[in-house]
Design brief:
Layout: E1 16-18, E2 23-25, E3 28-29, E4 33-36, E5 39-41, E6 44-51, E7 56-58, E8 61-68, E9 71-73, E10 76-83, E11 88-90, E12 93-100, E13 105-112, E14 126-131, E15 136-138
Length: about 160
């Protein structure tokens, strides 16, 4: 039995690649996939964002899937966020699922949200400095694994 082929005109476009010699000042918005190898000074919104090892992003990232192997300075919001061993992230991460490889450097807060793409999440995450290849340091006493921190409980005001 043959698998049905994709309908004509329904092929998925190739990811957009921003090469290492490219600097963009301004925001990027796409419903597709983006691979950044250069510098972006601005916010990025995409379906899948891959931050290459030579990349430097200064701004907010919002994507369904985020894979960071380079440097990000700013907030990261994604359903799935992965920091590889060469990643350097300085900023808050709001995620549904997160993976941080040994050797990654992360400084900021991490907050789990059921829908991290739905606007700003507020201050409910755990503040941490995390460098997975050199031992974890946390500014919150007794917090051994900041990457698995649950959102802070909300209290009703009287």
């Amino acid at each position: 039995m043959n698998k049905p082929s994709q309908q004509p005109g329904k092929t998925k476009p190739s990811p957009s690649v921003l090469s290492s010699d490219l600097t963009i000042v301004g925001n990027l918005r796409t419903t597709g996939d983006v691979q950044v190898e250069g510098t972006v000074q601005g916010d990025i919104r995409a379906h899948l964002l891959t931050v290459g090892e030579s990349a430097n992003i200064e701004g907010e990232i919002v994507a369904d899937d985020v894979v960071v192997t380079g440097k990000v300075t700013g907030r990261v919001r994604g359903l799935k966020v992965r920091l590889t061993s060469t990643a350097r992230v300085e900023g808050d991460i709001i995620h549904k699922t997160i993976a941080i490889e040994s050797g990654a450097h992360f400084e900021g807060s991490v907050q789990r949200a059921e829908d991290p793409l739905a606007g700003a999440g507020g201050d409910g995450g755990a503040r941490a400095t995390f460098s997975s290849g050199q031992g974890a340091r946390s500014s919150a006493p007794g917090m051994a694994r900041p990457v698995s921190a649950a959102p802070a409980a909300k209290t009703a005001e009287d």
